[in-house]
């Protein structure tokens, strides 16, 4: 050991050595030829790994991190990368072992990855990000508000003489209560129930999702609250049956969300196999991987029967298609992640799909 400081150079001026520095031991100087040079006293613990970050599309070298601690997580590496490329904040970064492979998780640890002493990671820019909570609140507040505009028949929708008039059909009022209840429930669940593992999603998704939710809400509301709307063929019987389906499915959906929440301790990203609890609504976990989607589809089918309105049926169909795709993906992940995953389960529809 000498008392001379050793030179720790990084192409993008970054090193995880800062993590183990004692206060005041890091000296930084700037050299135009070397980039930022960090002077590290020689008594520092030994470092073993190096990380180079290449652009996944062009293979251009974006960053070289010299002597990274093997215990460093991907989240820490992302933070270091951000220091040299501030435009790519951590939530925007996808780091992979293969240019076309899956993104590594933030909690993945460098020494547990199949890499040598120089790890090559491929970077992809995920685009501007927005928080999930903002996305959900925007997505769900929109339909709630839009539907009510039609329900109260504000001017410029149905013609002047219908402004602020009210429908004479009970089912129209009931439909408004159900629709509003559904979205208030979702807003409250987003704020107080769900424990998301991802903080953000790409900003562009919000435009797509809002067009979908807001557009369908306006289309459905226009017909249901139309002054010429005709109530369902089988009258009160049909409405009562539909209401029962809707309420049961809303309770079921809420119960599953609570069960999923209980799987994950606050602040963690743990994923576990969900199992039925004492609550009978959760027993659907015996047969499907995503019963919350099953119940969600059921709610919309109930709403379609209640209103006997074609746009509602189409919304249910599109929602069902989308949720089936997601449910299949989640089901596959469960099978891959958990060897003891219950074999009887299907993604979304018991015994079928
Ligand atoms: N009408 C429609 O078109 C439509 C479409 C989609 C959703 N929705 C509604 O929105 C609700 C939420 O949708 P979503 O896609 O976010 O549902 P989801 O993927 O089932 O997730 C619900 C919550 O549970 C967590 N979670 C899921 N599986 C988990 C596990 N095995 N262990 C621990 N936590 C787990 C999720 O965390 P992560 O962040 O880790 O995923 C998330 O916070 C749905 O249930 C449905 O009611 C409606």
Automatic annotation (TrEMBL):
Segments traversing the membrane: 130-152, 241-260, 301-326
Record-level GO BP terms: fatty acid elongation; sphingolipid metabolic process; very long-chain fatty acid biosynthetic process
This protein's GO CC annotations: endoplasmic reticulum membrane
GO molecular function annotations of the record: very-long-chain enoyl-CoA reductase activity
Reactions listed under catalytic activity: (2E,7Z,10Z,13Z,16Z)-docosapentaenoyl-CoA + NADPH + H(+) = (7Z,10Z,13Z,16Z)-docosatetraenoyl-CoA + NADP(+); (2E,8Z,11Z,14Z)-eicosatetraenoyl-CoA + NADPH + H(+) = (8Z,11Z,14Z)-eicosatrienoyl-CoA + NADP(+); (2E)-hexadecenoyl-CoA + NADPH + H(+) = hexadecanoyl-CoA + NADP(+); octadecanoyl-CoA + NADP(+) = (2E)-octadecenoyl-CoA + NADPH + H(+)
Gene3D superfamilies associated with the record: Phosphatidylinositol 3-kinase Catalytic Subunit, Chain A, domain 1 (3.10.20.90)
Domain TECR-like N-terminal span(s) in chain numbering: 51-125
A Pfam short name: Steroid_dh
Pathway info: Lipid metabolism; fatty acid biosynthesis; Sphingolipid metabolism; Lipid metabolism; sphingolipid metabolism
EC annotation from Swiss-Prot or TrEMBL: 1.3.1.93
Top EC group: oxidoreductase
UniProt keyword list: Acetylation, Endoplasmic reticulum, Fatty acid biosynthesis, Fatty acid metabolism, Lipid biosynthesis, Lipid metabolism, Membrane, NADP, Oxidoreductase, Phosphoprotein, Sphingolipid metabolism, Transmembrane, Transmembrane helix
Keyword Hydrolase: no
Location of the 3-oxo-5-alpha-steroid 4-dehydrogenase C-terminal domain: 200-353
Main subcellular location: endoplasmic reticulum
Topological category with respect to the lipid bilayer: Multi-pass membrane protein
Keyword Oxidoreductase attributed: yes
Record-stated family: Belongs to the steroid 5-alpha reductase family.
Function comment: Involved in both the production of very long-chain fatty acids for sphingolipid synthesis and the degradation of the sphingosine moiety in sphingolipids through the sphingosine 1-phosphate metabolic pathway. Catalyzes the last of the four reactions of the long-chain fatty acids elongation cycle. This endoplasmic reticulum-bound enzymatic process, allows the addition of 2 carbons to the chain of long- and very long-chain fatty acids/VLCFAs per cycle.
Protein name, entry field: Very-long-chain enoyl-CoA reductase
Species assigned in the record: Equus asinus (Donkey)
The gene coding this protein: TECR
């Amino acid at each position: 050991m000498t008392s001379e400081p050793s030179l720790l150079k990084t192409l993008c001026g970054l090193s995880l050595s800062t993590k183990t520095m004692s206060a005041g031991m890091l000296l930084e100087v700037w050299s135009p030829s070397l980039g930022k040079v960090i002077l590290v006293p020689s008594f520092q613990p030994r470092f073993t790994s190096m990380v180079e970050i290449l652009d996944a599309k062009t293979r251009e070298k974006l960053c070289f991190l010299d002597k990274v601690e093997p215990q460093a997580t991907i989240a820490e590496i992302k933070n270091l990368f951000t220091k040299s490329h501030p435009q790519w904040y951590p939530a925007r970064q996808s780091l992979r072992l293969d240019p076309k492979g899956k993104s590594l998780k933030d909690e993945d640890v460098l020494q547990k990855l199949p890499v040598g002493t120089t790890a090559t990671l491929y970077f992809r820019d995920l685009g501007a990000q927005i928080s999930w909570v903002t996305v959900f609140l925007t997505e769900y507040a929109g339909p709630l508000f839009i539907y009510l505009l039609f329900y109260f028949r504000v001017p410029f929708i149905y013609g002047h003489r219908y402004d602020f008039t009210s429908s004479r059909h009970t089912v129209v009022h009931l439909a408004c209560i159900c629709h509003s209840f559904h979205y208030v429930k979702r807003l409250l669940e987003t704020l107080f129930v769900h424990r998301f593992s991802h903080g953000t999603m790409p900003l562009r998704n919000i435009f797509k999702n809002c067009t979908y939710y807001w557009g369908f809400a306006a289309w459905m509301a226009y017909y249901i609250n139309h002054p010429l709307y005709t109530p369902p063929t089988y009258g009160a019987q049909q409405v009562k049956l539909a209401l029962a389906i809707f309420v049961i499915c809303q309770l079921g959906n809420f119960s599953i969300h609570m069960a999923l929440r209980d799987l994950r301790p606050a602040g963690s990203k743990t994923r576990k196999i969900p199992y039925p609890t004492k609550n009978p609504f959760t027993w659907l976990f015996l047969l499907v991987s995503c019963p919350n989607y099953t119940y969600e589809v059921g709610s919309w089918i109930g709403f379609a029967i209640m209103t006997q309105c074609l746009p509602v049926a189409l919304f249910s169909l599109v929602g069902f298609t989308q949720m089936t795709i997601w449910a299949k993906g989640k089901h596959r992940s469960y099978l891959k992640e958990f060897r003891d995953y219950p074999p009887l389960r299907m993604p979304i529809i018991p015994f079928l799909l």
